[in-house]
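As a warm-up, study this chain.
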Amino acid sequence: MGIAELTASRPVTPGRRAAPARRAARELLLVATLFLLYKGARMVVAGRVSTALANGESVWRLERLLRLPDEAVVQHPVLSHTLLAQLANGYYAYVHFPATALTLVWLYLRHPARYLRTRRTLAVLTAAALAVHVVVPLAPPRLTALTSMVDTGSRYGPSVYGPPDTDALSNQYAAMPSLHVGWALAVAVALVAVTRGRLRWLWLTHPLVTMLVVVATGNHYWLDAVVAAAMLGVVHLALPVSAPPADAEPDISPPVRRTPAR
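Now compare it with the structure written out below.
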């Protein structure tokens, strides 16, 4: 009769249990640093207000030539309902980064290969967006008089921006591309890829809602979202398919040794 002999498993020390949490915190810090560097770099290229305003009018006219819906039509119902305006402003202010960060942490813990690809995608997309901000400064619709749109954040709150002339914490003339839409779409694509069933396509509601919110609040044109989506597609095609990270948690289950049957 064959006899199965199991070796004793190695004890899991508190330090070993904490290792995934430490690595997740490190990765989250990396993404937060990327976001802050992007915000800081935008400030470095701030200015050129007259060019940004002229570009805003050009984009608005181009959208009319392309027969895109007028952004003011989307904003009008929001202006009629204070609560709806506040919800849109809150979504714009408070969902963008936390939703991205939580998704990355979950991907890191459950799907390391997809996490690595998503992190690289966001890094490249953010760097490319910064390059566009330098080349094409663009005033958002709320700062472009031709659009007749208002700043819902300053009117109803909450707002992440101060008055454009005195705001020393952000560059408000860098509307294209919309990283709110770009990051939301990147997150949705990653979640659709790692989940199963028809309901997984509901993840796409996040970028769709984000697009409506950035337009309704007067922070972006339709073309800002279109350019962000196109850039994301190019980044996805350019990046190679990655293998799981080298420091992924190893399989520590005890080996099974069997003795030959006698």
